[in-house]
Every structure is written in structure tokens, then in C-alpha cells.
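Reply to dn_fold:

You asked what the input looked like. This is it:
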Amino acid sequence: MLNIYDQENVVKSSRTANLLVQELRALVKSAKPLLADIVLEILQQAVQIEQRLNRIMSTTRPEEKTA
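and this is what came back:
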């Protein structure tokens, strides 16, 4: 279980990674083939980071109690 500070940092990191992925997806559409190719490699890495952060969030989220 993460402490509050770590949870906040994971959430912020996940949001930032999501924004990075969105911006890189737009940049992949560049008319410059070399730029698009380089950005595609970076995008793949960013997607992996985003997925890992999402997994951390889902596995460390406190369980919801049902009534």
C-alpha cells in the first residue's frame, strides 16, 4: 500500500504520461518521415510507461467497500 504522498505522485505521473502520449500521437502525423519515425519509437516507450503507471494505480487503490 502506498502512502498518500506516493499515491498523489503516481496519479500526477500517470496524468502527465497520458498527456505525453496524446502529444506524441499528434506529432507522429508529421509530414517529415524521419521525425515521425523517431517520435513513433518514443511514443511506444511512453505508452509502456503510461500502462505501468496505470497498473500501479489499480493495484494500490484501496478496495471499495460494498454495503
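The two ends are 23 Å apart (CA to CA).
Hope that clears it up.
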